[in-house]
Specification:
There is one protein chain. With 357 residues, the protein is of the alpha/beta class. The chain has two domains: 229 residues, Type I PLP-dependent aspartate aminotransferase-like (Major domain) (Aspartate Aminotransferase, domain 2, 3-Layer(aba) Sandwich); 102 residues, Aspartate Aminotransferase, domain 1, CATH 3.90.1150. Helices cover 34% and strands 17% of the residues. The protein is built from nine helices and 14 strands. α1 crosses α6, α3 crosses α4 and α7 runs parallel beside α9. The two termini are 25 Å apart. 45% of the residues are buried. The structure holds pyridoxal-5'-phosphate. Pyridoxal-5'-phosphate (PLP) binds next to α3. Its cofactor is pyridoxal 5'-phosphate. Its main location: cytoplasm. Its EC number is 2.6.1.52.
């Protein structure tokens, strides 16, 4: 079966098999990783190796702290303003879809939010050129969503935020291609797409941005506290952290983000080319900003949706239903989706269109 779910998403089979083989007895310790003290030498080694592998994969220098936090990406929507506003009151946000909107709504509880640009008037089918953004030099930070998982809209550029720290929700694009981390003040990513199990959220923060949390910030949301304690101020999500480490090792074996980027570009191109070349299917996104990770598409007749999904399920092409807010279909093709999965989907789509189109 090929699982096209947007998240929790398919994980590399090799990773799941390794986890299975180590589940009851991790390397002769007689314990599952799940049962280990987070302060044991064994687990500290697992945790540090995972961080080191992530640093290598993403090219993260010592100027940045890497935090393994909990509460998913959504908890960061509040954690970011609580920590980064410092003595400022306002922050800039770019609105390109449902996840941007959620980040904006939560930030408004703490900050004077300036929506510097929005593509809502286009139905979130494009990204406004940076030349028309109304950003402010005195903003505490500039937040954007490089890949809108639901809309399937992805930036093909990194915004230039000048001296203002750039903050990115990379939940659904992290590790899918090379990115220059040095351009960012903070990157965060919910794990359940390209990293591992849900609940875990990885935060990469430039160290000079630590230590600015508002006084009333919950301790568990204070980046300085989490950094000072090696993400072990409390009991971390140990098993998720371990699984993320296995995914990072797998990624390194695949050739890292450079190789992933080439494969992902090829997978996405194939699928979009097929959709564009077939009258029965359509994708509404400005071709320049089509996501490599999440490919929404509609059928010529919505009345055929359930039949399409039933046929897909029968072939082991799972979870193609679009997000409830936009309808239609969505194929999420993260790092762990093999190219054969995309080929199998295209074959099925071609057959379905021929029979029912
Ligand atoms: N941001 C983006 C871009 C997402 O795709 C998601 C989840 O799918 C989230 C945030 C929320 O993540 P979580 O469910 O881990 O809070």
């Amino acid at each position: 079966a090929f699982n096209f779910c947007a998240g929790p998403a398919t994980l590399p089979e090799a990773v799941l098999k390794q986890a299975q083989s180590e589940m009851l007895d991790w390397r002769g310790t007689g314990m599952s990783v799940m049962e280990m003290s987070h302060r044991s030498d064994e687990f500290v080694n697992i945790a540090e190796t995972a961080e080191q592998d992530l640093r290598e994969l993403a090219g993260i220098s010592d100027d940045y702290a890497v935090l393994f936090m909990q509460g998913g990406a959504s908890s960061q929507f509040a954690t970011i303003p609580l920590n980064l506003l410092g003595d400022k009151t306002s922050a800039d946000y770019v609105n390109t879809g449902i996840w941007s909107k959620k980040a904006i709504a939560e930030a408004k509880r703490y900050a004077d939010v300036n929506v510097a640009a929005s593509s809502e008037d286009t139905g979130f089918t494009t990204i406004p050129e940076q030349s028309v953004w109304n950003t402010r030099a005195d903003a505490a930070y500039l937040h954007y969503t490089p890949n809108e998982t639901i809309g399937g809209l992805e930036y093909d550029f990194i915004p230039d935020s000048g001296d203002v720290p750039l903050v990115a929700d990379m939940s659904s694009t992290m590790l899918s291609r090379p990115v220059d981390v040095n351009k960012f003040g903070l990157i965060y990513a919910g794990a359940q797409k390209n990293i591992g199990p849900s609940g875990l959220v990885v935060v990469i923060i430039r160290k000079d941005l630590l230590g600015k949390a508002r006084q009333q910030t919950p301790t568990m949301m204070n980046y300085q506290v989490i950094a000072d304690n090696g993400s072990m101020y409390n009991t971390p999500a140990t098993y998720s952290w371990y699984l993320a480490g296995l995914v990072f090792k797998w990624l390194k074996e695949q050739g890292g983000v450079q190789a992933m980027g080439e494969i992902n570009a090829r997978k996405a191109r194939k699928l979009y080319d097929f959709i564009d070349g077939n009258d029965f299917y359509a994708n509404p996104i400005d071709p320049r900003f089509r996501s490599w990770m999440n490919v929404p598409f509609t059928l010529a007749d919505d009345a055929l949706n359930s039949e399409f999904l039933k046929g897909a399920d029968a072939r082991g092409l799972l979870n193609l239903k679009g997000h409830r807010s936009v309808g239609g279909m969505r194929a999420s093709i993260y790092n762990a989706m093999p190219e054969e999965g995309v080929d199998a989907l295209i074959d099925y789509m071609a057959e379905f269109a021929k029979e029912r189109g």
